[in-house]
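Usage example:
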Amino acid sequence: MNSTGRAGRPKASSRETLAEAACELFLEQGYDATSVADITQRAGVSRSSFFNYFTSKSDVLWSGVDERIGEAIRSLEGLGRTASGDAVRGILLVVVRDLEPDPLALALRNAAAMGLQDELVRDTGLRLARLSDAVASAARAAGIDVMRADILGAAHAAAVLSAVRVWAEQGAGRGTPEVVLRESLGLIHDLPWSA
Amino acid sequence: MNSTGRAGRPKASSRETLAEAACELFLEQGYDATSVADITQRAGVSRSSFFNYFTSKSDVLWSGVDERIGEAIRSLEGLGRTASGDAVRGILLVVVRDLEPDPLALALRNAAAMGLQDELVRDTGLRLARLSDAVASAARAAGIDVMRADILGAAHAAAVLSAVRVWAEQGAGRGTPEVVLRESLGLIHDLPWSA
DNA sequence: CAAGTAGTTGGATTGCGTCTAACAATACGC
DNA sequence: GCGTATTGTTAGACGCAATCCAACTACTTG
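Running the assembly step on the lines above writes:
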């Protein structure tokens, strides 16, 4: 029996091995100066293997959060026309529940050292847009006007990403990310969900 | 005397020539299937020249709006600690003032035909993040809490980009983009600027 | 006509991301 | 034990975006 349970060749490497190698190099040389080949060389695998584990270089940082965001988007799509503000906020809280220190958290805390400023703006923007779209769709499905839906979507998505950033930057200083997000979402109550 | 007034070799092409060639091809073949080489070939210039006019392929679509966003960001940075909600909204209104039909407007209207869905999410996300950051910085400079600033930033930025999208999609159906944005920003009044 | 200036061009380079066909290591039925 | 299916690794080639540079070209001005 294989360690993973089923047949076939056992994995020679792991996401964690690659992620560690990548993070080391990002800290040493910076993100841009580190090529995928560099990462795989340090991890002792071939370049091809990298893309068996990650879909892109930035995916090393974001795969954890992306997975949770993906779930949230699916949940939001499942809401249908019954979407209420509380239902949406409930789903968003799950995104950050029990979030653990990540490559992303490391990157957010050492953004300057990694030369990540631009890359992070780009990447957070993408996630912001994705989440924002999903929330906005849910709002529209609930009968809310297009532009109001867009604004609600962006506000909610920003609350999530801001909470992640604050949590990552301040370590355990401000409590769990869930608490941070709850506080953050509270601010949006000023923006009524229904027209 | 040269057409531009000064010395040197006159331009053989123009942004407009290239943008037109690009938009044609995007409509015919889709965005992804169109390479920069394709564009320059149709425009009758060398591939190198493309990057004398645009910084990237997507810049063909976004350069108009990016220029205005760039101005807005500079204005926002100039606000200092005196930033008020009205001052910020005044700056944002300038972004869309007298906006004219663009390659971007064309792309937003024909997103499906151009196969632009993913690319547009990516690109709008980037602009959303940029504008959002700038507004959030202004808010923080005015003494507003970090997370509230992020949410305000995202809401304002989303209002701008949503207005652009609505304007582009609906043609002149809903009035000038400035009017659309004014309506859109009105919704944010529910989110008080000051803590 | 000489010098300066602005623009164009080909070509080389780097790196990301995709793809495929070959190869290696394991489990399982026999 | 021996084949076979399965799963994973790998080398290599590919297309493309984007950067850089040195050579060249077309204009202006003195």
